[in-house]
Amino acid sequence: MHVPDGFLDAPTSVATGVVAVAGVALALRGARNELDDRTAPLAGLVAAFVFAGQMMNFPVAGGTSGHLLGGALAAVLVGPYAGVLCISVVLAVQALLLADGGITALGTNITLMALVGVVAGYAVFKAVLLVLPRRLSSVAPAAAIGALLSVPAAALVFSLLFAVGGEAPIGFGKVLGAMLGWHLLIGIGEAAITGLVVGSVLAVRPDLVYGARGLFGDRKLEIRATAGGAA
Asked: Is 181 exposed, middle or buried (0-12, 13-18, 19+ CB in 10 A)?
């Protein structure tokens, strides 16, 4: 999904850059209410995991590529605001140090993956939770569905941006078909990974999962004594 330099015209790139700056600024304020001494290290781990996952790229069309986004995963684990920051940091490092995604297109990539990916994934996650039984076992499936739909949502927004300011000689229909087709498949893989990771964290530390807050009541982490040792 990384958009290269020159794929969108200057006005469109500037506009998405403004949106990205505003979104990150808002996330910086909101993340203060999501992270604390216990959950802040998890945000770092999430960013590292997403960074590694995004290193696997699949060519799509006209110089664009598809890969795991991680927006829904980040939002469910550390919160939507902190999730936006995690994905934004990953994209900035990739663009500035690894030339993965254009520097002039950084605002576009942050808008697509850090803003649309996180917001769409978390919105779907919350909507699914309203339908499923209110218990911890519902969190991982809801996160998986959010991840599944967040990927084509970002692809759709990119296709609309291309229709407005695309510079490459590729028809809108071709770009839309390629982006949605590939990213629906990628979304399936992202759903599986998201559900597995969220479920694994829930199994050991549900108190750290932002999306599970309020679902485990007063349950606390217990450390049991082992034979020959003290608790």
From this structure: middle
